[in-house]
Amino acid sequence: MTLLSSHLFPFSSVHCRSPATTTTTFPWNKPTTTNDTVKFLYSPSVHRSVRLNERFVTRFIVPANAQDLIHNVGATVGVLGGAYALVFSFDDLTRRNVIDQGLSRKLVHILSGLLFLVSWPIFSNSLEARYFAAFVPLVNFLRLLVNGLSLVTDPGLIKSVTRKGDPKELLRGPLYYVGILMLSALVFWRESPIGVVALAMMCGGDGVADIIGRRYGSMKIPYNQKKSWAGSIAMLIFGFLVSIGMLYYYSALGHVQFDLWNIVPRVAFVSFVATVVESLPITEVVDDNISVPLVTMAVTFLTFHH
């Protein structure tokens, strides 16, 4: 997967720059080298004695890969805890009738994916960091799977994620959603803007489209009476803005550098194509959580590549 993601952009709509001391750049970076060991006091690892003022002081040395492991495990625990806190918060708001179930479900759809995307820079620069990040949606994938198959029952999860309270719904849109989160982390990670734009369109664009469409979608699209002009316009605008915002976020952290006037029309075109795909009457055949991100990935690759 690393070889795939590292060859996605041979041309420079998005360019690399020299990485900061502790950041990895994309799209074509190689991981920065680090010292073989990092010294910690009282670490239970290899030790050596040195003579200082005719006394021996024991120093302990922890391999750099052990420090990296601790870093990534801590980041995984933190992101996983944040994900559960987010779902629990909206579940609680739904139970207390502060917001309705439909709005809660869509806000979770929007925020969980975007917060996952925002969390990527928390992980280390090692090649294995993406696997630790992907563990977070994997846990949710397994949780949806066992509940969808009725092996266990979590009423709060079913109420906050499904439309009609049917556990089998968990095996469709929600399961595809976390699958795309895993795919983006494993294949693209911070080395390619493809995953960034795809998640921005799936979470920010498609999520907002449903909220706006349900509230203000009286004018339906002629070729699909289940979709509205208001929803599609909202997806186009918010998908574009969230995509640009996320790219700027990664740029500010030193992961990517781009020419704003060059990137804006390309992201606008990708957003337009994704919006058209979302508006098509194919939901019964291909779920939006599959069609929108996969088409976005393909169009982003072709657009940024050229």
TrEMBL record:
Q: Which GO terms describe its cellular component?
A: chloroplast; chloroplast membrane
The molecule here is called phytol kinase
Might you give the EC number(s) for this enzyme? 2.7.1.182
Catalytic activities: phytol + CTP = phytyl phosphate + CDP + H(+)
Q: Name one GO biological process term.
A: vitamin E biosynthetic process
Q: Which UniProt keywords apply?
A: Chloroplast, Kinase, Membrane, Plastid, Transferase, Transit peptide, Transmembrane, Transmembrane helix
Q: In which pathway does it act?
A: Cofactor biosynthesis; tocopherol biosynthesis
Report the sequence similarity comment from the record.
Answer: Belongs to the polyprenol kinase family.
InterPro entries per record: Phytol/farnesol_kinase
UniProt key word Transmembrane: yes
The places in or outside the cell where this protein is found are:
Plastid, Chloroplast membrane
Ranges annotated as spanning the membrane: 69-87, 107-123, 129-149, 170-188, 194-212, 233-251
Q: How does it sit in the membrane?
A: Multi-pass membrane protein
- GO MF assignments: phytol kinase activity
